[in-house]
Design a protein that fits this description.
- The complex is a heterotrimer of chains A (308), B (162) and C (423).
- Chain A has eleven helices and ten strands.
- Chain A is α/β, with parallel strands linked by helices and 308 residues long.
- Chain A is globular and about 60 Å long.
- In chain A, strands 1, 2, 3, 4, 5, 6, 7, 8, 9 and 10 form a ten-stranded mixed β-sheet that branches.
- Chain C is globular.
- The chains are: A alpha/beta (308), B mainly alpha (162), C mainly alpha (423).
Chain lengths: 308, 162, 423
């Protein structure tokens, strides 16, 4: 008989967040298919590990599995920041193709992550990045000039600097107060947090830049993976595929619903395709510096992205 | 030997104390750059956190040496000196075992960090061994100091008791 | 059942005088080992518990208040306040409380507040014939304002554990802090009206008031910048701590009250306090993770939410538990042990976590002044050389007032929530 195995998963978001329900679906299917031979325990709300600690915790075997935002690997794999390089994936279709299992971009990145001692089981869609501002609406790239803006990653910071804004790193939970008290004038965030964190109460404008794509990956310790039986691996892989597809479809709907809600609360600005190309032109140096910084892999990823 | 350990511990704590001071200056610098020059630094946040971890763990041994660790002193007035000394030795033993285990596994994470070339995911991309070696360094020193304190306590008892 | 064993083990270690940090950390480590979890988790957790920008504010606030203290601002402050209110009935007592409240705005710790004001105020008051238990109780309780009026180290730690905004937490403490200060002042006033044993102080001349006040203006400005800056959004709490530290350094240097020797002592003392506190934070983090892997907080939270549907009942029970813990435990440990366990229940019961933080901090204030283990009692005892019994006799009216403030907060939550969310 095969050895029973408990898979503990650390998650930084609450269980009722869509990434959490996605994990619960995975848990249900895996436990059912394996007749309880595989047991899944979810530890939500960063009870065990903060986002930045997850890659190392899983790689060292301190915990079996974890959910982590993709750019947390950027220290070890600089090219992974491709998802934050401005306007590379600025439509749902491009995101869909880039993150599809077996796509060129994803295969490269999954392989790179595997070298750090963790295997990617599936990608979790979180949503697209937008820009919030308080008094001054932002439509053109020049509008950000001189603003203090909250960012959540290095390459997003580069983008802000390139546009003449001053980036400040703030965690998700610090956002509300920083906006309310005016510590920053603008902020980059996803669409869904605008509703869940009630950011619409303290900000007036939302520009749908879709300048970046926020992705999470579910990873498993590679040594443990190799110890699993083929049946166990097959059950996990199959469930992972199913819940991945489910979530990607669902996120589109959630964003649409949230956006409809936000529109009743704040001034939402969509960009025309001319405006979008202005943004692209203004942020082109960020792509240059990304390629310089990340070498062959970065260049390859940018080329692949252009084909989408 | 004991004197050498004590002076290393003391030097580490002195460094730590001024690291806290330096952190204060770094944070101030960051505010000035952002508020007045609208040019936030990219290093202040991360570097100050790095120094914090190092400072706290480097100074742990000295805090033990000075017996400043917080204990629950509930029955202290009921115990005689001898009993207190035994409890003290027990505490040192617990501290030693804990620190030794942490040091051992801490060295493991540092080794992994070097082998895999791990770096922080932030703007500075600092190699993780630079940050994570604070754990084996601090707890290694703490383990050694616990032994030193234990020897001191035993010797002192011999001096007093005959 | 496991929960009970863990609790007993912790209690046993603490009673054997194992330092709190290592009692928590040791049990955490053993729990992980027993169930075969990878111990690679231990160094990662110890590292992660300190790698935190919010926590950084603790040493900076400590440096700020230590530097100001070495510069003698405690005495200045008391003299100035006394020159204004000293001649009122119970005037010295009122001056003590007001000084505590002002000092609270530059200090995040109640011990520092009690010690600072205590050093000056106790001898002044006893010399004027105030009864000793009244004086000692007053300073011990006045010191506890230090953690309710921002900045506040327990609030910072609460924010780190629960990921709630430090700004909201700080701002929520202001209203209840001032309310308690007002209660204490009224108590002093009544004491002054009905006690005949003390001699009132002569009214200060305008000139005396002027000089005394002038000396304290820079300190009050620093306090104003620290709290005002957070409120106005000029900077985050950690940054305000950094600014407060630098300004204090400038101030005492400009006043020519700082020597290298004094700075050295201030820096050393801040280091020791920080490290003792942070080792407990790290140990508690390890303990917290271990019990999470044993699913203890989850089960307790489930137990609470399935058995208690009344928020009032929940708050009452928690307060009783905290009161009990507070008799014996050091305050930071209460926060670090309890909060991870009860935080998950708050949402289900619809209790505002910011409001709850204020309740928790008031319970910590109680713990600081309830015997047998109350750190403020010890500090006052050390400063005054009085028998502990005398301190304890003076402190119980203040415990009642703290309890009263909790009841008031239950009925008028806006006492805490108005400033952060509606202003
Ligand atoms: Na305070
Ligand atoms: Na107590």
């Amino acid at each position: 008989a095969e050895e029973a195995q408990t898979l503990r998963i650390t998650l930084q978001l609450p269980l009722k967040h869509h990434l959490g329900t996605n994990l619960q679906n995975f848990k249900q299917e895996v436990e059912k298919e394996s007749n309880g031979n595989l047991k899944v325990e979810i530890y939500p709300s960063a009870q065990l590990y903060k986002d930045k600690e997850v890659p190392e915790a899983v790689a060292s075997g301190a915990i079996e599995m974890g959910v982590v935002s993709v750019p947390q690997f950027a220290g070890t794999i600089p090219a992974i920041d491709i998802f934050y390089v401005p306007f590379v994936f600025d439509t749902p279709e491009k995101i869909q193709k880039a993150t599809a299992p077996g796509s060129a971009i994803r295969s490269e990145l999954d392989a790179a992550i595997l070298k750090t001692g963790t295997r990617v089981l599936w990608w979790q869609a979180y949503g697209s990045s937008i820009i919030l501002t308080k008094d001054k609406p932002v439509r053109l790239p020049g509008d950000l000039k001189g603003m203090k803006i909250r960012v959540y990653g290095k390459t997003l910071g580069d983008m802000a600097t390139t546009l003449g804004a001053a980036p400040t790193m703030l965690s998700g939970s610090q956002q509300f107060m920083a906006y309310q008290r005016g510590t920053v004038d603008a902020g980059m965030t996803g669409i869904t947090p605008v509703k869940s964190r009630k950011l619409y109460e303290v900000m007036d404008n939302m520009t749908l830049t879709y300048n970046a794509d926020i992705e999470f990956v579910v990873i498993i310790n590679e040594q443990l993976w190799q110890k699993l039986s083929d049946t166990q691996k097959a059950i996990i892989t199959k469930s992972a595929r199913r819940v991945e597809k489910e979530l990607r479809e669902k996120v589109g709907q959630i964003e649409k619903a949230d956006l409809a809600f936000v529109k009743t609360k704040m001034n939402v600005i969509s960009l025309t395709s001319e405006e979008r190309s202005l943004w692209r032109k203004a942020t082109a140096p960020v792509i240059e510096s990304y390629i310089q910084r990340t070498g062959d892999l970065g260049k390859k990823l940018i080329d692949e992205a252009a084909k989408l | 030997m004991l004197r050498i350990i004590d002076s290393i511990t003391r030097a580490a704590a002195l460094l730590a104390a001024w690291l806290f001071f330096t952190i204060g200056l770094m944070v101030t610098w960051e505010v000035i750059m952002r508020k007045i020059f609208n040019a936030p630094t990219i290093w202040a946040d991360e570097l100050s956190r790095l120094l914090l971890v190092w400072a706290v763990y480097l100074a742990a041994a000295e805090v033990l040496k000075r017996r400043k660790l917080i204990t629950v002193e509930l029955f202290e007035h009921l115990l005689n000196k001898k009993a207190i000394r035994y409890f003290d030795l027990l505490a040192l033993l617990v501290i030693f075992i804990f620190s030794a285990v942490v040091t051992w596994y801490g060295l493991g994470t540092v080794r992994d960090a070097i082998e895999l070339g791990r770096k922080t995911s932030s703007i500075l991309a600092i190699p993780k061994w630079v940050t994570e070696s604070s754990i084996p360094a601090g707890f290694g020193l703490l383990a050694i100091q616990a032994v030193a304190e234990g020897i001191k306590a035993i010797c002192r008892r011999k001096e007093v008791s005959p | 059942m496991t929960t009970l064993w863990i609790l007993l083990a912790l209690l046993a270690l603490l009673l054997c005088r194992i330092p709190v940090a290592f009692a928590l950390g040791g049990i955490g480590l053993s729990l992980l080992y027993v169930k075969g979890f990878s111990l690679a988790m231990v160094p990662l957790t110890l590292y992660g518990s300190m790698d935190n920008f919010v926590l950084l504010s603790v040493p900076l606030f400590l440096l700020m208040s230590n530097i100001l203290l070495k510069g003698g601002v405690g005495k200045d402050l008391f003299t100035a306040v006394q020159s204004w209110v000293g001649h009122w009935p119970g005037g010295l007592g009122i001056a003590t409380i007001i000084s505590c409240a002002i000092f609270s705005a530059i200090s995040g710790s109640s011990l520092a507040t009690a010690a600072t004001i205590g050093t000056v105020a106790i001898s002044e008051m006893t010399a004027r014939g105030y009864s000793r238990p009244f004086v000692l109780g007053l300073v011990a309780a006045g010191g506890t304002l230090g953690i309710l009026i921002p900045p506040s180290i327990p609030m910072i730690v609460y924010g780190v554990i629960t990921e709630e905004s430090i700004v909201s937490l700080f701002l929520a403490g202001i209203g209840p802090g001032l309310l308690l200060a007002a209660c204490f002042i009224i108590y002093c006033f009544l004491y002054g009206k009905f006690s005949s044993s003390y001699q009132p102080v002569a009214k200060a001349t305008p000139a005396e008031r002027g000089t005394a006040t002038l000396k304290t203006i820079p300190t009050i400005c620093i306090a104003g910048i620290v709290i005002g800056g957070i409120y106005a959004g000029w900077f985050t709490p950690t940054e305000s701590a950094g600014i407060g530290f630098s300004l204090s350094l400038l101030l005492v240097t400009a006043m020519r009250r700082m020597s290298w020797g004094m700075l050295y002592v201030a820096v050393q003392e801040s280091m020791v306090t920080t490290v003792t506190l942070f080792l407990i934070v790290a140990g508690a983090k390890l303990f917290g993770k271990a019990i999470t892997l044993y699913r203890i907080p989850q089960e307790i939270s489930l137990l609470i939410t399935s058995n208690i549907s009344e928020p009032a009942m929940f708050v009452f029970l928690i307060c009783m538990v905290l009161l009990l813990m507070g008799f014996f435990l050091e305050s930071m440990s209460m926060l670090l042990i309890m909060m991870p366990v009860i935080y998950p229940s708050l949402g289900g019961l619809g209790i505002d976590p910011i409001w709850f933080a204020v309740i928790f901090v008031i319970m910590i204030e109680c713990a600081l002044i309830t015997p047998p283990v109350g750190l403020n009692l010890f500090v006052i005892q050390a400063v005054s050389q009085a028998p502990l019994g005398e301190v304890i006799r003076g402190v119980w009216p203040f415990i009642l007032m703290l309890a009263g403030s909790i009841i008031l907060l239950w009925f008028i939550p806006d006492l805490a929530l108005y400033i952060p969310f509606k202003m």
